[in-house]
Write a structure and sequence with these properties.
The chain is an alpha/beta fold. The protein is built from 25 helices and 12 strands. The chain has an 8-stranded mixed sheet with strand order 5-12-11-6-10-7-9-8, sandwiched between helices. A 4-stranded antiparallel sheet has the order 2-3-1-4. Strand 8 (615-616) and strand 9 (622-625) form a beta hairpin. Helix 8 runs antiparallel to helix 11, helix 10 (290-313) crosses helix 11 and helix 17 packs across helix 18. The longest helix is centred in the middle third of the chain and has 97 residues, at 318-414.
Length: 756
């Protein structure tokens, strides 16, 4: 598996652990949104949606043919034209016609409320209308009549939806009464069809009046133009025949010949320039000449033979001398022949050019004469043709107008059969509730809660800057994790009810510092045994004989870790000594139940000897040196020669295999630096979900700057959800311990009963 795939898997696992840790937040969001969606869906008033389907063809009203005018929109205006039709469907004119058709003014209760009353809930149409008004910052025109409240009521439940990839449009209306919803949808569709038909008929009527007036004017204009054309022909002696056509045909022939002559002249000029500018050897006539080819071939053969003789016998050989003379003569002959052929080629090209120039000049003169003859004839015909064309155009326009007028009158007689709007499906009273969609709303509420919960969980996780898992320790501190100690609360939560009954006593009733001794099969005891193994392997060559246990801040469990580590080491059969060097807030004497009237402070001040300070505990092979009375100057005592002697003396005693120093938090005081310098290593305790990343980083940096050897990190009070697959064996062992103790008690009780 590649590094990128490993990184992706790691990131996905991290996000999954975030969701597991914050699962109660996600459950809460899911519950709130799902319940809200469910309640709102069941208390909402059901509404029904009726839909009628209308076909709107793109072709509009066409009054004139032959593309004189057309109401059909162009392809570029296709979308705009249809959007205009959708706005017309919801316009005041169409809605007013629908209201009059349904006679709503005399049926105020048909809407289920007073038309002037505001709607109790926003529909989709109202929301869309409100958004449009808010964006455009405009208000709809308010007609000053009694239909305005009814129009607003219909517009609030109306929706117009075009059917994709078709000319169909769905006109829908939403209302509490399914019958009324169907009635309104059909009435609006009918009103829209009547509106478009009315517009078409109105345009046709206006066009008919215009046609009649225009036809009368054109008839008078055509009559006057015919009289003027005949008078002009008589005055100018114009007779239309074939003479003009023959003259124009001759002119076209002369023009074609002149054009060809110009082409020939250009070709001759180009050939002449090419011949003059090309070297004689490169001319086509020279290259293709048979004599030149033979001379060139003979010259090449002689040259080849001369080179052979020259290579074999030298330049003074008689045959070579004779052949060299012959080569010179043949070269001169070849050059003379090339020059002669080149002169002939140039002379021929010059003669052809002169001939083409004379022909072009003659045809140009003839063309000018022909043009003058045609111009003389055409001057008399220009005005006549212009007037004749204008007369024909007016006649054609008059014929077209008369034809269209006849078509319009016939269409009016037969009725309009080419209407571009038709009702495909009439709306029927719906049986299915349109809103609310309970299942959909509940599902959307569930999904919304899921998204909100996941988002809130991720945000809270990244806002939380505490160290919670070994991955956080490695990412922030870059130090090895010696061990992880699960929190008591998370283990109590994970135990089943049977396991809790089987356990002799809850974990919460036992001092955490003595869990390794009191409950050796518990998950916490097992984690300290893992820590013991990691500490023994932390230094090269030999296990650390003495080490310091500290933390970044108070309440992170450094004393608990130090004592449990000492107990775990003692369980290996080694003699362990715990030295409480926390001279500010000592706890080891309370945990191990020893007096503390004398201790480290009295030794450092010279008031007692070390042998009198070592006290045995109730745990086998574990001894302790308490802190003693709290001095006013702990740092000065720990930075003295007397403390160096204490460490040296303890290190020299062979009866103790390991010495563990419990020190104050490193960010609070300088004491851990003074203690850690004198020991072989220091263990830094961090409390999961308590120690901030900044505090952990500063604590480690302070130890390293103080030249303290940090063996590694102990992550204390880890919640099992931070490492979900870490403690399966621990939970099994924990439950097994409770079951074994229960069976032991039952066997003892049964034995006592038999003896009695």
């Amino acid at each position: 598996m590649s590094q990128q795939e490993n990184q992706q898997e790691f990131n996905l696992r991290d996000y999954w652990q975030i969701l597991v840790r914050r699962r109660w937040l996600i459950y809460t969001c899911l519950l709130v949104t799902t319940v809200a969606a469910t309640v709102s869906s069941f208390i909402a008033v059901p509404v029904f949606r009726a839909t009628s389907v209308v076909a709107i063809e793109r072709s509009g009203v066409r009054i004139l043919r032959n593309n004189l005018t057309s109401a059909e929109p162009s392809w570029l205006d296709y979308q705009n034209w249809y959007n205009t039709q959708y706005r017309i469907i919801g316009s005041d004119a169409v809605l007013g016609t629908a209201i009059e058709t349904m006679d709503l003014t005399n049926r105020p209760d048909a809407l289920g409320r007073d038309p002037g009353e505001e709607r109790s809930s926003l529909s989709l149409g109202e929301i869309k209308a409100a958004l449009v008004r808010a964006i455009t910052r405009s208000t709809p025109a308010v007609p000053k009549d009694e239909l305005l409240p009814y129009m607003n009521a219909l517009r609030g439940g109306l929706s117009i939806n075009p059917v994709r990839d078709s000319h169909l449009v769905e006109i829908s209306f939403v209302d509490r009464d399914p019958n009324f919803a169907a009635e309104v949808a059909n009435a609006i569709a009918e009103a829209y069809m009547r509106f478009t038909l009315g517009q078409k008929l109105q345009l046709a009527e206006q066009s008919r009046d215009w046609f009649i007036d225009r036809i009368a004017d054109l008839k008078d204009e055509v009559a006057d133009a015919e009289f003027e054309l005949q008078d002009y022909a008589r005055r100018n002696g114009i007779v239309v025949g074939e003479t003009g056509e023959v003259t124009r045909k001759n002119l076209d022939e002369v023009r074609q010949k002149h054009t060809q002559a110009q082409v020939n002249l250009g070709q001759a000029r180009a050939k002449l320039e090419t011949v003059k500018t090309t070297s004689p050897e490169a001319l086509d006539d020279v290259i293709e000449n048979q004599l030149i080819r033979e001379l060139t071939r003979d010259l090449a053969n002689d040259e080849s033979q001369y080179q052979k003789l020259l290579a074999q016998y030298g330049s003074d050989f008689p045959e070579a001398v004779k052949l060299r003379a012959g080569l010179k003569e043949k070269r001169q002959q070849l050059e003379q022949q090339i020059a002669a052929i080149a002169r002939q080629t140039i002379d021929s090209a010059q003669a052809a050019f002169e001939k083409a120039r004379r022909e072009e000049a003659q045809l140009a003169s003839l063309l000018a004469q022909s043009k003058r003859r045609v111009d003389t004839l055409d001057r008399a015909m220009v005005e006549y043709s212009t007037r004749d064309s204008e007369l024909n155009r007016r006649k054609q326009t008059l014929d077209d107008l008369i034809t269209r007028l006849n078509d319009m009158e016939l269409s009016a007689t037969l009725g309009d059969t080419a209407h571009n709007v038709s009702i495909i499906d009439e709306a029927k009273p719906p049986r299915i509730i349109h809103k609310p969609k309970k299942k959909l709303n509940i599902m959307l509420g569930f999904l919304l809660g899921l998204f909100i919960g996941i988002g809130a969980a991720v945000v809270m996780e990244y806002v939380d800057n505490t160290i919670k898992s070994p991955e956080d320790v490695r990412a922030v501190l870059g130090s090895p994790v010696l061990g992880m100690v699960p929190s008591i609360g998370s283990l109590e939560k994970e135990r089943s009810r049977a396991e809790r009954r089987a356990a002799e006593s809850p974990l919460g009733e036992i001092d955490p510092a003595l869990l390794t001794a009191r409950m050796p099969l518990s998950p916490i005891a097992e984690s300290y045994r893992e820590l013991r193994t990691a500490v023994l392997l932390a230094t090269a060559g030999h296990p650390p004989r003495d080490l310091t246990v500290t933390s970044c801040q108070p309440s992170e469990g450094k004393t608990t870790t130090a004592v449990n580590l000492a107990i775990a080491l003692a369980q290996l059969g080694r003699n362990i000594l715990v030295v409480d060097t926390d001279l500010r807030r000592p706890r080891c004497h309370d945990v191990l139940s020893v007096p503390h009237d004398q201790g480290v402070s009295t030794y450092l001040t010279g008031m007692s000897e070390l042998s009198a300070l070592v006290l045995p505990t109730e745990i086998d092979r574990l001894s302790v040196v308490p802190a003693g009375p709290i001095p006013p100057n702990p740092a000065e005592l720990l930075d003295s020669q007397r403390f160096l002697e204490l460490v040296a003396e303890l290190r020299g005693r062979e009866e103790y295999d390991h010495v563990i120093f419990d020190s104050p938090p490193v960010l609070s005081v300088v004491d851990p630096l003074l203690i850690g310098r004198q020991t072989e290593g220091t263990v830094l305790v961090l409390r999961s979900a308590f120690t901030s990343r900044e505090a952990g980083r500063l604590g480690k940096e302070k130890l390293e700057k103080g030249r303290v050897s940090v063996l590694g990190i102990v992550l204390n009070a880890v919640k099992t959800e931070h490492v979900p697959y870490q403690y399966r064996y621990y939970r099994y062992g924990y439950a097994r311990e409770g079951r074994e103790k229960t069976r032991t008690r039952r066997r003892a009780a049964a034995s006592a009963g038999r003896e009695g």
